[in-house]
Input
Amino acid sequence: MIDSTTEVKETMQDDTTSSSAAEADFSERYSDVIGKINETLDKVDWSQVGRIGKASGVLLAVIVAQILIKGVLDTINLLPIVPGLLELLGLVVVGNWSWNNLTTGEKRSAVMAKIQTLRKEYLS
Output
């Protein structure tokens, strides 16, 4: 009876010793990994991250907007008369804009000047 109790105690001490060694090994590896991560993060140019974040946010917003617009247009397309009326409305709007802005040479020049100023403003 005493021998079996002694064996259990010795086994428990061996397990405790091996678990403490494993914990020490783990903590060493953990500190090495954290050290490497910190070194890598120190090399990053953080001034560029804001610009990348803004660009990815805009891209995400555009994707969500396109999904919503597609859903709305698919729903409208299921109605029998509405798609044809929307096409007609688009033709009327384009025709009206063209009549108001492209009928004379002066109006066409004004439109081209406006396009040139917008191009210089946004592309330069």
The chain has four helices and no strands. The helical segments are 2-43, 49-78, 82-102, 105-123. The two ends are 91 Å apart (CA to CA). Residues 94 and 100 are 10 Å apart (CA to CA).
